[in-house]
Amino acid sequence: MGMTDVTRRRLASGFGIALLFVVYVGTAKLGLALDAVSGFATLVWPPTGIALAALFVFDKKLWPAIAVGAFVVNFTAGAPIAAAIGIAIGNTLEAVVGTWILRHLQFDRAIARVRDALVLVLGGAVVGTLISATIGVTSLWAGGVIAGAAIVPTWRAWWIGDALGVLIIAAFLLVWSQAPRTRESRGRLVEATAAVAAIVLTTLYVFDIVLPSRSPSDEFRTPYFVFPAVMWAAIRFRQRGATTGALVVWTVTIVATVAGHGPFAAPKLSESLLPLQLFMAVVSLATLFLGAAVCERDGAVRARDEFLAVASHELRTPLAALTLQIASLQAQAGANTLSPDKLRTKLDVLERQGDRMTSLAESMLDVSRIMAGQFELANEQVDITAVICEAVARFRDQATHAGCELILDIRELAPITGDRMRIDQIATNLLSNAIRFGRGKPIEVQLTEAPTAIVLRVRDHGVGIARGDQARIFEKFERAGTRRPSSGLGLGLWIVRQILTPMGGSIQLASELGEGAMFTVTIPKSGTRAP
Amino acid sequence: MIVGKIGTAGAKHTIVTNAPLIMIVDDDDDIRTTLSELLEHMKYDVAVAADGLDAMRQLRKGARPAVILLDLMMPVMDGYEFLVELRRQTALARIPIVVITAAGNAAAEASKLGATGHIQKPFKLDELLATISRVRGATDG
Lengths: 531, 141
Description:
heterodimer; A: alpha+beta; two-stranded antiparallel sheet; elongated; B: 5-stranded parallel beta sheet; globular; disordered N terminus
C-alpha cells in the first residue's frame, strides 16, 4: 500500500517537528543545568541557534516544535504556566522573525560574503533575539518569578545568551547544512584535525588545564591566545573552519569554566557570565568575518580568472574571423576570382571584427578607469534626441544582420545637460545587448521625457533574464544564464550602472526568462551637479 | 557517393557530388561564412549550422558529414550538449568531431569530451586542413 504525497509530507513534517522538539528541549535543559541567572537566563542558549537554523534551512512550519519545546522547558523549570506561555511565545517569535529577517535580506547560509555575516549578526543575533529576551523577562517579572531589580541583569544575560546561540550554533549549523562540493584530500583532513587539536589545546592552556600555571598571575596565559588557532581554521577551511573553531572554543570554555578553571571562573557561575559571553562574542565575530572575507577573496580571484578566460575568448573569436578572412582574400586574390562586390563584403567583415576588438579594448579600459576612480563626467549641452538616433543608426546593419527589426519611438526633446559620450555609451551597450540576446525578434527603442529626466527604454523579445539573475547581471563580469559564458565580457550593464550612478540616473529591468527584457534608463536633465 | 548538403533554414538544397561533407557548427556568422567559402574553395562540400540544435536537426534529416567542426560556446544548444546528444544516437556517434574553440584550454576540453581533434581560435587555414585530413584518415583507415 503506497502512501500519498500528502501523507508522506505530513509524516515528514510531523517527524521534523518531533525531532526539533527533542533537540530543543535537550539542549535547553543542558543550558539551564549550567547555573542560570534568575534560574532562566543562561550563559549558553543553543536552542535559539538550533531553532533559527532549522526554520531557515527546512521550513518555517516547524515553529510548533519551538513553541511546545520552550513551554515544556520553562514550565518544568518552575515557571508559572502563564509565564511559561509568555516565554514560549517570545522564543517562537524570535526564531520566526529572525528567519524572516534573514530571508528578507537575502541571507545566504554559506556566509561567503561579509554582507551575509553582517546580516546574521545584526538581523539574527542582535535584533531577533531582543524579542525573546524582552517578552521572556517581562513574563517572568509579571509572573512574580523575578523582582524588579533583577530585570536588567536577567534581560542582558538572556539577550546575549540568545545572541551567542545564533552567532555560534546557528552559524555552525547553517554553514554545515550545505553538502560539501568536493571531497577533501587526506592531507586536508589531517590539517583540519591538527587545527581542531590546536584550538582545543590552546583553549585548554588559556583555561589553565594544559600546563597549569604555578603562580596566580601568569602573564603568558590570556584569553586572546586562542586567536592564532581559530584564524588558522578560518583562513584554511573558510567558514566551515571558522564556525567549527568558534564552536570548539565555546565548548571547551564552557566545560572549563563550569569546572572552575580559567580567567572567567567565579564562585558562582552566573557571575562569570558577562566576561565569558563577551569573550565568546569576540571570538565568534572575529572568525565569522575573517571566514567571510577569505571567501570573498576566493570569489574575487575566481572572477578575475574568469575575466581573463572570457577576455581572451572574446579576443580570439574576432581574431579567428580576421585571420580566416585574410586567408580567404589571399586564396581568391591568388586565383583572381575576387569581384569588387565580394571584396567589399570581405572588407566589411574585416571592419566589423576590427570594431568588435576596439569596443572590447574600450570596455576593458573603462573598467580600469572606473576601478581607479578616474571616471569624470562632462557637463555639456547634449542634444539627446540626436545622440540616441546616431547610436541607433550605428546598429542598423548589425540589427539587420541579426534579423532584428528596430522599432523606434524617439521624441524630439529639448537638449539636456550631461555627458554626451557616456550617454551614447549607455545606449550603445543596451542596444548591443538587445541585439545579441534578441533572438532575431523586433527591438523597441523609446525615448520620452519625465518632468526632470529623460527616459530611454530598450526592449527586446529574446532570451530574457531569469528572476534570480536580475540583480547579478549588473555586477562586474556577470552574464545572465548558464554555467558557460555565452558571449561578451559581462561588463556592459556594470559600466552602464557605473556611469548612471554619478549622473544621478538609474536603470531598471523588467524581464522573464524566455520573454525578452526591457531596460529603462532615467537620466536627469540637469547634469551631475545640482542646479 | 551521394552526400546531402543542407544549409541553414530557408536555404535547403541537395547536390550530388563526390566531395566529402564538412559540417561547421558555429554561432559567429562571419566565421561560418568565411570558413565555408574557404573549404568550398578547397573542394569540400559544406553544411553550416548556427548552433547545436540546428546541426542536430540537419543530422536527423540525413546529413552525414565526414567531419563536424564544432564550436563549444553557442546559444540554444552549446557544443557540450550537442556532443552528449550526438553520442546517444548510434548512427551519428562515430562521426569525427573537431572542437574549434576560443577557450584557453581547447586541448583539455576536447580530450575530456572525447573529441577526435581540436583547434584553438584563432588558427591558420593550413592547420585546419591538416587536422581535417588527419581526422578523416584516422577514421577511414
